[in-house]
Amino acid sequence: MKTTISQVNRFVGEEVTIGAWLANKRSSGKIAFLQLRDGTGFIQGVVVKAEVEEEIFKKAKSLTQETSLYVTGVVTEDERSPFGYELQVKDVEVIHEAVDYPITPKEHGTEFLMDHRHLWLRSRKQHAVMKVRNEIIRATYEFFNKEGFVKVDPPILTGSAPEGTTELFATKYFDEDAYLSQSGQLYMEAAAMALGKVFSFGPTFRAEKSKTRRHLIEFWMIEPEMAFVTFNENLEVQEQYVSYIVQSVLENCKLELERLGRDTSKLEQIKAPFPRISYDDAIKLLHEKGFDDITWGDDFGAPHETAIAESYDKPVFITHYPTSLKPFYMQPDADRDDVVLCADLIAPEGYGEIIGGSERIHDAELLKQRIEEHDLATDAYKWYLELREYGSVPHSGFGLGLERTVAWISGVEHVRETIPFPRLLNRLYP
């Protein structure tokens, strides 16, 4: 019976064949222990000299790291294994022998591992991170489908800057200027006016010359947008969504979180509702914590976000930022024109902002005024203004950065480990 490592629990006591790679091996005279992986998981294969033909035992002992093979054996339960099962090997068939595999079971420098990212992905830790990433994506679709959202795909090539920044990758679109998208939000607003509740999931690009552990040049965003939804209702959707994906990872990635050494007790606390603090009160809190140099109107950096998050054991919303700090499309507070109805969701444990969201301006005249104040080309936003001219309604949305969220939930330090092939300021290879 041919099967995969993830499915061996169905065949306890039976003989199966698994296509796998040799991750590592060790031997002690009359027994060879083969650490096998097949993409679905890892399992130990035990080859006992007295129980197989001599040629098979010799072959098992001579296998090199990352050699591909078919392994046939009997599945047994093993309480000592984190996986719970192992394979009593009866036969080994080499498919392709790997020679001088560059990533050996020793310490390698970051740049070396990044140069060999195409191979580094095979390691246990990277495998676990990618499985956590996949579970977050799966749970995302599940959550929004359950909540009645429609998946919409905004364009990657755009003719304008959604947030009015200059941190864009420009390209020629025949005889026009175009840019790689830094957000699908504006298009999602159009979709929400047609379909009510929508979400997108796709790549975004930002030409920000940053080298921090929280930044990538190419990253993936989940961007929901909702018609007839106000600011506070938007926050409720965000906390329900984040709670959902965290609990899904806890339930479905136990082995991966254990392999990553993640303290799951901290994740178990991540359930809605989340605490909220206004920008005004956040400034006061930072002053109490010794950040005397920050004043009202300044944006928060990583140390500030971390200091604020330390006061809570759940993600915390920082709300009502100054209008001057935020993009042109955010709805002003009805009681204060110097702040907008927005919130950043800051993850615990120093992982920083994972969500930015707001209620959007729904008045056409105010939006036109904001566009002019930001020196944006009115013609480029003509279609966006028309959304407010034909049946405008209050609406809200947010964007969650997938890689930062993966880093937080999996407990890895740098976002470069949370995407299969990271694009960084100094890296376009492999």
From TrEMBL:
For this protein, the record's InterPro entries field holds: Aa-tRNA-synt_II, aa-tRNA-synth_II, aa-tRNA-synth_II/BPL/LPL, Asn-tRNA-ligase, Asp/Asn-tRNA-synth_IIb, NA-bd_OB-fold, NA-bd_OB_tRNA
Q: Does the keyword DNA-binding apply?
A: no
Q: Which SUPFAM superfamilies match?
A: Class II aaRS and biotin synthetases, Nucleic acid-binding proteins
The UniProt family comment states: Belongs to the class-II aminoacyl-tRNA synthetase family.
Report keywords, A-Z: Aminoacyl-tRNA synthetase, ATP-binding, Cytoplasm, Ligase, Nucleotide-binding, Protein biosynthesis
Superkingdom is Bacteria
Q: Which residues form the Aminoacyl-transfer RNA synthetases class-II family profile domain?
A: 130-430
Q: Which Gene3D superfamilies match?
A: Bira Bifunctional Protein, Domain 2 (3.30.930.10), Nucleic acid-binding proteins (2.40.50.140)
Record text on subunit structure and interactions: Homodimer.
Q: Name one GO biological process term.
A: asparaginyl-tRNA aminoacylation
Where it sits in the cell: the answer is:
Cytoplasm
Source species taxonomy:
Bacteria, Bacillati, Bacillota, Bacilli, Bacillales
Q: EC number(s)?
A: 6.1.1.22
Q: What GO MF terms are annotated?
A: asparagine-tRNA ligase activity; ATP binding; catalytic activity, acting on a protein; nucleic acid binding; transferase activity
Q: Key word ATP-binding present in the record? A: yes
Organism of derivation: Rossellomorea marisflavi
Which protein are we looking at? Asparagine--tRNA ligase
GO cellular component, alphabetical, reads: cytoplasm
